[in-house]
Write a structure and sequence with these properties.
heterodimer; A: 391 residues; alpha+beta; ten-stranded mixed beta sheet; B: 229 residues; alpha/beta; six-stranded mixed beta sheet; four-stranded antiparallel beta sheet; 7 helices
């Protein structure tokens, strides 16, 4: 049986150069499908990874009751301080509650790509913000000094916006800020500008805060912390884990990308299946007599089916590999911006992971299989005497 | 030459085309002894190729019996019939039906791929078969590098290589000029006389039929006569 399959497959493959154009239809079609699918999934994966990395379950975000985002939340100074004194809040290295009262505003900077203004999240933070976010690293320069108009910028901001390099001065809401450092955290904060909270309040005439980020003793402490906040009659706040907050903020975008990916991939896959079917029907049809001759000699129908399937799946594999390779070369770590939850630019990198490549190859093989199966069965089922007459 | 290698008893063959049933063979009874060389002749549509296909196990009759070397091939399923063909029948077609991507020796080797024979032995046998048909020096040539006559010789070598008792030839000289056709027919005659192969050959050409030991005429699906040479 294997000798038969091998012989017919070898014959089919040796015949390929004579059917180069038709075979390329499968290869190019599949490369396109896998390339687009992988790129779309890489976008979803990259956005998801960036957002997932931003949140941690043992950090809680406290916003004004009923606010669903930092930008439309507001807490006065007393409330913000009271929040940090509740049960379940971890102590920092200085023995004080580990928390950062933060003020979130929108700033505008010119985008490198278009030259037009783009929104950037401007975050006023306290010293605790750095201890709460240990994944944040200063990669150039230093931290800002409290009380001075100094600013840290995320790595993504320097890549996407003009005039956002170390040492440059940017004008925001009528005040000049000197960029003294660049940080990298591998998450959504890379798309932000960080300044000292108190300095931000005085520069922008704000009294309160947008939210308080607190470090919890553990992820399990969250219910107790939430209960304590509810029990405190002087407070009207909502608390949730930071990971839940970011998942909620960006759930819409990732869901939309997933829907888009599914629809586009389905339509393209359908087209590729028909292209593969057409090509393999033509390919089998040009070899009707050869297949009939082999069957007359005594070759069984199963080796014919298997060999045609091997050919179509081999072509699909080549197409799939080319598409996956192209997607990996072009899109892996490709940085893009999108509107984040607060109408600010969120920078993230496409992530072409092995799992995505595997998904792309699986789709390619499935298309190759479906595209080859019907022509293969037709070739095997055609009566030998009828096929021989087609000579 | 008295023992019948092929025994056909009251064979009927119908084809269905759309809603119409066409009866191609009407109760054919024919015996072909071992070592015979039979030419099947008749006008187009007389059923000669259909009869040849039934003898070679490429098709199944609608009714009647076909025994080859004592075996009822009309009762075999497709897979069994394919195995039977591989071991018992060599086919020679009008248009040679060689695989264009394979060399002559690889074409001849094809039927041996259905045996348990090793690769070296297969090639050795293929070359012996090519030597019998006088084409050993063309073993590494592909079909497009050969003349029509040479291609048909390769096809005959392929039919011979598994040493079948029965050779089934459908218009083997239909695509060849007279001189080349005579060479091919002489070769078939030699295979019959020297190697004892039983040959059934469909032909339109009375000159080709002269190379056979006897001619069987068909007309409208019925055996007309069976004159001996």
């Amino acid at each position: 049986m294997f000798k038969q399959i091998f012989a017919i497959t070898l014959m089919n493959l040796r015949n390929l150069p004579e059917r180069l154009g038709a075979s390329l239809v499968i290869v190019v079609g599949l490369a396109g499908v896998v390339g687009v699918l992988t790129a779309l999934l890489a976008m979803s994966e990259g956005l998801g990874a960036t957002l997932k990395a931003t949140g941690r379950p043992d950090r809680a975000m406290v916003l004004r009751g009923g606010s669903d985002a930092e930008l439309n939340s507001g807490l006065d100074r007393d409330s913000a301080t009271l929040v940090t004194e509740q049960v379940g809040v971890r102590k920092g290295a200085d023995g004080k509650p580990l928390a950062s009262r933060e003020l979130v505003l929108i700033a505008e900077l010119p985008l490198k790509r278009t030259g037009t203004s783009g929104n950037v999240t401007l975050r006023g933070v306290e010293a605790g913000a750095f201890e709460l976010r240990p994944d944040l690293k200063i990669i150039a320069g230093r931290k800002f000094a409290p009380g001075l108009n100094e600013m840290l910028v995320g790595k993504g901001v320097t890549e996407q916006f003009e005039d956002a390099e170390l040492g440059q001065v940017v004008r925001i809401r009528g005040a000049d800020w000197t960029i003294v450092g660049v940080f990298e955290s591998g998450n959504a904060h890379d798309s932000e500008l960080w300044i000292d909270t108190d300095t931000a309040q005085s520069a922008f005439g704000r009294q309160g805060y947008s939210m308080v980020l607190v470090g919890l003793e553990s992820a399990e402490s969250l219910p107790a912390f939430q209960a304590a906040l509810k029990a405190e009659t002087r407070l009207n706040v909502d608390a949730e884990s930071q990971s839940a907050y970011y998942a909620r903020q960006t759930g819409g975008s990732t869901a939309m990308i997933k829907v888009l990916t599914t629809v586009v991939s389905f339509v393209m896959a359908l087209g590729a299946i028909f292209a593969a079917l057409n090509t393999m029907y033509a390919s089998v049809s040009t070899r009707t007599t050869e297949i009939a001759t082999l069957r007359a000699i005594g070759f069984g129908p199963l080796p014919v089916v298997v060999s045609v399937l091997i050919e179509s799946m081999l072509l699909a594999t080549i197409g799939g590999l080319l598409g996956a390779l192209g997607a990996w070369l072009i899109f892996n770590n490709y940085a893009v911006t999108t509107l984040g939850g607060s109408f600010t630019q969120l920078v993230f990198n496409f992530k072409v992971t092995p799992r995505l490549l595997q998904a792309g190859m699986t789709l390619a093989l499935a298309i190759g299989f479906i595209g080859g199966l019907l022509p293969a069965v037709r070739a095997a089922r055609m009566p030998v005497t009828v096929a021989l007459r087609e000579a | 030459m008295t023992e019948a290698l092929v025994q056909i008893n009251n064979v009927v063959k119908h084809y269905t085309r759309g809603k119409q049933t066409v009866e191609v063979l009407h109760g054919i009874t024919l015996a072909i002894p071992k070592g015979d060389f039979v030419a099947l002749m008749g006008p187009s549509g007389s059923g000669k190729t259909t009869l040849l296909n039934l003898i070679g196990g490429l098709d199944q009759p609608t009714g009647g019996e076909i025994l080859v070397d004592g075996k009822r091939i009309d009762r075999m399923g497709n897979a069994e019939l394919a195995r039977w063909r591989a071991g018992n029948v060599g086919f020679v077609f009008q248009f040679y039906n060689l695989l264009p991507v394979l060399t002559a020796e690889r074409n001849v080797e094809l039927p041996l791929l259905l045996t348990k024979m090793g690769g070296a032995e297969r090639l050795k046998r293929a070359n012996v078969a090519l030597e019998i048909v006088g084409l050993k020096d063309r073993a590494r040539h592909k079909p497009k590098e050969l003349s029509g006559g040479q291609e048909q010789r390769v096809a005959i070598a392929r039919a011979l290589v598994s040493d079948p008792t029965l050779l089934v030839c459908d218009e083997p000289t239909g695509d060849l000029d007279r001189k080349t056709a005579d060479e091919i027919l002489t070769l078939l005659q030699r295979l019959n006389r020297e190697y004892g192969k039983t040959i059934v050959m469909v032909t339109h050409d009375p000159k080709a039929a002269e190379y056979a030991r006897r001619t069987v005429h068909l007309d409208k699906g019925t055996l007309v006569d069976e004159p001996a040479h």
